[in-house]
Fold this sequence. Notes:
Layout: H1 2-16, H2 21-32, H3 37-44, H4 53-89, H5 108-122, E1 126-127, E2 133-135, H6 136-139, E3 164-166, H7 172-180, E4 185-194, E5 205-215, H8 220-234, E6 241-248, E7 251-260, E8 277-286, H9 288-293, E9 302-309, H10 310-318, H11 331-334
Helix pairs in contact: 1-4, 2-4, 3-4, 5-10
The chain binds 3,4-dihydroxyphenylalanine.
3,4-dihydroxyphenylalanine is lined by residues 169, 171, 210, 248, 251, 282-284, 305-307.
Amino acid sequence: MEDTLSLKNSFLKESKSATSVAKLQQLRIKYLGKKGLITSKLKALSTISPELRPAYGKVVNEVKVYIEEEINRIESLLKKEEHKKRIVSEAVDITLPGKFTPFGREHPINKVLSEITVIFVSMGFEVEEGPDVELDYYNFEALNMPKDHPAREMQDTFYISEDIVLRTHTSPVQIRVMEKRKPPLKIIAPGKVYRCDADISHTPMFHQVEGFMVDTDVAFSDLKGLLESFIHSFFSAETPVRFRPSFFPFTEPSAEVDIGCIFCSGKGCRVCKNTGWLEILGAGMINPRVFEMVGYNPEIYSGFAFGMGIERMAMLKYSIDDIRLFFENDMRFLKQF
Length: 337
Ligand code: DAH
């Protein structure tokens, strides 16, 4: 019995140093666990003579209840304290100003690119893409510009190696698509192009949209009708359009397409160099030599192609006078679209 009472005293001493819930839990195991000190006293009851057993049992039980209650009492105190500490350490100052995350928005070039794409898709065109790093063969050769062709000099090319270039235009996508598909085809091919050139109207990287259609009887009048509808939906239904004879190695005949100057309504100004017209794209009937390069019979198939610069379209539509603004990432500029 004395032994049991001294257990109570040693528990009292030890409980003073139980300064955390975890330490208290160890005490609980030490005294009340399956192999605990009190538990073994209870087990030992059976070895005590029946006359002494009730008195002894009563003492052990009282000590057990006492220790249980003490542990529960200390535990709830410790838990309260730990909770208080956590509240202090995890405190958030709700009076601090919040962090402002600005909304992103579409870049004006991507916006114009998707506007143009939507117009052509609504007229039955499919979208195809080609690689930015292109073989000389697709960028020039197959487009009827053999090595030493003077037209190559119109495009200041970035060379990766003798046979590999950064594409100077999106026209190589025509070849790539025609090589793997058969007419009828109505395709547009938007993407980045590269030329070694930089001033207020040129950046070394810019965007173009190529378009072409091939079938058994495509005529120049189809090209005219299509481009006029496109220009009227992109700019306005009143925008004047004119076709001017021109030259491209991959089209014959070739044309450049102008719109009435949107800055002076055709009266003549600095932007249109007093002509009243602004050039916006190149076009023409696909040269039979290009068809031969991709294995199409030019006696059976005809087609047209066109190509336009996206930055130029965006500059005209939104009256932007310096192409470099698109690539400076100045929020004051980008926010306006
Ligand atoms: N590829 C030409 C360029 O970048 C633009 C062009 C002109 C594309 C006439 C065409 C075309 O498809 O028919 O200067």
